[in-house]
Amino acid sequence: MRNTDLVQFLKLIYAERDISRAALAEKTRLAPSYITVTIRQLQEKGWLLEGERVRSRAGRRRRLLHFNPALAHLLGIEIGRAYSRIVVTDFLGTVLSHKRISSHVSKGRDHALGLIHPEVKACLQHDPRVQGIGIAHSGVIDTAAGSVLFWPEVQGWRDVPLKQIFEGEYGLLTVVEDSVRTWAKAEQQFGQGRGHSNFVCIDIGMGIGAAIFVDGHPYVGASGLAGELGHTTIDENGDLCSCGNRGCLEVIASGAAIINRVRSALEKGVGSVLGEEDSTSSPEDLSIESIVTAAKAHDRLCELVLREAGTHLGTAMAGLVNLLNPETIILGGALPRAATDLILEPLRGTLKARALQQSVSRVDVAISQLPDDATAAGAALAVAERTLEDLCRAW
Ligand SMILES: [Zn+2]
Fold first, then answer.
1. Range 125-139 average pLDDT
2. What are the Cα distances from residue 115, in Å, to 41, 118, 169, 250?
3. Share of the chain above pLDDT 90, in %
4. Distance 227 CA to ligand 1 centre (A)
5. What is the residue range of 124's domain?
6. What's the 247 CA to ligand 1 centre distance in angstroms?
7. Residue 262 Cα, ligand 1 centroid: separation in angstroms?
8. CA of 231 to the centre of ligand 1 (A)
9. 256 alpha carbon – ligand 1 mean position (Å)
10. 314 alpha carbon to ligand 1 midpoint, in Å?
């Protein structure tokens, strides 16, 4: 098999996780005898393993093939504003160990990276099988160059060549990817994206970003910037956004926007438990959690602000559903996790009212059930495919 064909063949097996020889022949249109020979070679090399037997539609029992999880281990790093997460996974992305550290990104990139490097060194010393590093990062990423172009509202993070820094330090293949896309990769492999070809993952934290999957593949757009749902205009004359536009979804319905709205209402003297003198949360340190707790205790202001955010999110999602006709939308991030029903109820109502009936009747809106380290595990998955290419070169 030619090297490029072998890479495609292996990527198909990797994406499918478990696949029979017959399904491989059907999907690749290669001769079954050719597939049998190649698979035998891959098994002899220890790349592929045989798994359980399943019964085909015709009633024949077939043995499924999958990658050897021990083929290589991978390191996944999520660099976040508050915390960074570092995981070691097997080749299939199953987390073997994980660690969370404070990021301190406001102290500058050298300080923040200086906290991550000792953790990476410890992982590599402990597990010499690690063959690649995947880094998940928010902000504007140049995936091809592996750098962070800029990180809105985080000083000192402009043109950070993470790929160059990590490859220079550790001599391991490093891939830098947008953190919403790595989380979505994890949803596709382990979560509610499994079995779906067309789906959208929307992260609603302090900002809002989306990852779009079309026909099973991530859609990244002409310059890799697809998925900037947070910068969809909702109110043409609204507040100024960090992108320079007015009334973006992000300035109306993100975690940061919700905190700003509650704070500004409190400053105007609107009544709320959060404004009372014995409140545990002063206007300076309001958080999504304190606002959600107050709303759940029927605080009118907090309930109203969250419901309005849910309505605006529903409006933006109606546009998305009309445009893409997805099978499912998965919501992740601090806001949907904390305020599930408070956000979902107005969101679903608005989506149903505004999107085309034929599209909206099929779409499912779900909250992510994956653990907190899913974004870092997805970064490891992002480097797995590139590691495969390297392994094939040495075939
Ligand atoms: Zn914007």
1. 95
2. 43, 6, 14, 30
3. 69
4. 12
5. 73-185+373-393
6. 7
7. 20
8. 4
9. 13
10. 17
How close is the Cα of 296 to the center of ligand 1, in Å? 30
Mean pLDDT of 376-393: 91
Structure confidence at residue 343 (pLDDT)? 92
- 199 and 336 assigned to the same domain: yes
Domain total in the chain:
3
Does 380 fall in a domain? Answer: yes
Q: Residue 144: which CATH number?
A: 3.30.420.40
Q: How far is the CA of 139 from the centre of ligand 1 (A)?
A: 12
Query: Residue 178: which of 131, 214, 228, 216 has the closest Cα?
Result: 228
Asked if residue 42 has pLDDT above 70, the reply is: yes
Backbone angles phi, psi at 201, to 5 degrees: -110, 130
CA 56 / ligand 1 centre spacing (Å): 50
pLDDT digits (tens, 9 = 90+) for 206-245: 899 999 999 999 999 998 889 999 999 999 999 999 889 9
* Chain centroid, CA 154 distance in Å: 20
| Cα of 109 from ligand 1 centre, angstroms | 24
**Average pLDDT score over residue span 73-89:** 95
Q: Where are the beta strands (DSSP E) in the chain?
A: 48-55, 61-67, 73-79, 83-89, 95-102, 130-137, 140-142, 147-150, 158-160, 173-178, 199-204, 208-214, 217-219, 328-332, 364-367
The owner of tokens 């990817």 is 177
Same-domain pairing of 206 and 261: yes
Q: pLDDT per residue over 97-121, tens digit each?
A: 999 999 988 888 889 999 999 999 9
Q: How far is the CA of 185 from the centre of ligand 1 (A)?
A: 25
Quick check: is 262 in a domain?
yes
Indicate whether 101 and 200 sit together in one domain: no
- How many angstroms is it from 19 CA to the middle of ligand 1? 43
Residue where a domain stops, chosen among 67, 97, 122: 67
Tell me the whole-structure pTM to 2 decimals: 0.92
- Distance from residue 177's CA to the centre of ligand 1 (Å): 21
Q: Give the whole-angstrom CA distance, residue 374 versus residue 200.
A: 16
Q: Extract the tokens encoding 140.
A: 């504007």
| Cα of 228 from ligand 1 centre, angstroms | 9
For ligand 1, the distance from its centroid to the CA atom of residue 70, given in whole angstroms, is: 43
pLDDT at 280 over 70: no
